[in-house]
Amino acid sequence: MRLKPHTLKIISIILIVLALQSCLVTKEYVTPEIEIPDNFRDFKDNDSISMAMMPWEELFEDTVLRNHINEALTTNYDAQLALQDILRAQAQYKQGKAGYLPTLSLDGSATSSKFSGNGIQGLQFGGGDQEGNPAGGSSRIEQYNLSGTLNWELDIWGAITSNKKATAAAYLATEAGQRLVRTALIANIGTLYYELIALDEQLFIARQTVEARKNSFDITQKLKEAGREREVAVQQAGSQLKIAELLELQLELEIKTTENAFSILLGKSPREIERGDFRERPPNLNTSVGLPSAILRNRPDVIQAEFNLINAFELTNVAKTEFYPKLTLGGTAGFNSLDASDWISSASFFNDLVAGITHPLLNNRKIRTAYEVAKIDQQSALLEFERTLLISYQEVADAYLTYNSITEQYNVTDEQVDFLKNASNYSLKLYQNGFTNYLDVLIADTNLLDAQISLINTRFAKISATIELYRALGGGWNKVIAPEEVTTETSEE
Question: Cα–Cα distance between 149 and 436 in angstroms, integer?
Answer without folding.
Answer: 105
